[in-house]
Predict the 3D structure of the following.
Amino acid sequence: MARNKAAHGGKGTPATVALTRAGAEFTLHAYSHDPDAASYGEEAAAALGVSADRVFKTLLADVDGALTVGVVPVAGKLDLKALAAAVGGKRAAMADPAAAERATGYVVGGISPLGQKKRLATVVDATALTHPTVFVSAGRRGLEIELPPAVLVELTGARTAAIGRG
């Protein structure tokens, strides 16, 4: 995998800047985003021609009053109880979209687990480790980062756990 320092559209996103600063190996993939797509992640998988179990969505939840990031395959859902348990919490609910945008600096549908404004507790679904590379949002709709899951876990300070379902 080649390091991609070239910015898409002439300007990098906070995610690509963070990867480049860390010297991480990654590949940037752009595709034409349809604003009417029902699922941004499934749209990305189809547009890039990769299995939906390799494309991960970044979701924010409120776990006992603290925003927490869950990264799960787009083909499934975030198991809120499992996310709470993974960070030692009791209760979890999906975060308010406006709060998610403020905390991460990204818009919903383009939230990357990398390069967020605030360092939040992050949990990556353990299935990511079964793939040589995974895809996550690069911080903009229509732009994905492909990278080894170990790099994703390391650079986000994440723990891994079974937080995805079906």
About this structure: The mean pLDDT is 91. The chain has five helices and ten strands. Helices lie at 14-22, 40-48, 80-86, 97-104, 149-156.
